Amino acid sequence: MRTIWAALLVGCMAAGGARAETSEQRGKRVVNEALEALGGERFRGMQDRVESGRAYSFYREQLSGLSRATIYTRYLVRPEPPVARFMGLREREAFGKKQEDVILFTGDAGYELTFRGARPLPDTRLQQFRDGVLRNIFYIMRERLGEPGLVLDSRGADFYENRPVEIVDITDDDNQTVTVYFDQLTKLPTRQSYVRRDPITKDRIEEVTIFAKYRDSGGGVQWPHNIRRERNGEKIFEIFSDQVKINQGLKDDLFTLPANLKLLPKERPGL
What we know:
outer membrane lipoprotein receptor (LolB), chain A
């Protein structure tokens, strides 16, 4: 009986402690637990990543494109102390069996690379990419935790696809918010969403990303092998990675524009 009462007392104390958490304290706890589930310092020490698999694009819920995709990502060392909205990521998206079609994001510019040359992406596309990076939960945990003005605010517990989740709003000093669902059992992110405005029409656009099928990508770092993106409730992109590798020693030249490549006229503005 003493053991039973002791267990009940510990349970009540734990429940009382949980109730005593503020929404910000709970938000920080949930995000820190997710960070540890992803690999902790091994995750935060990730220098680069290579994801390869089948990529699908959709238009009005109908399949509009299918290709072999390889996505190369490299992280930059963030300044210390942290700087708000530091853009410390470079990305190269290569499509096709021979990686003949490439989208390159160099940080301050973006290009479409083909056999014809390099065509600068419109400003709206570049800004959309930048917003997506800065409000991506993995980038936030890798680069943005601790930056000035970043607030983690718990919205409590709920269910998502019949699994219990913790919901956290992450807001920066520019009042940009992403809402993230964390699985209560695995602690890993399962869904994120944020709202942006069309730069021309000012219409509200909701961007949703869903993460699934986490695997160890080497060195104890977990990464989702199935990523789906939706826009205003419609699926627009999905990748099924059959291989994800980290810390492959990717070099600068992979993320810079080749000097001998012809520069083409800029694309017309658009999404």
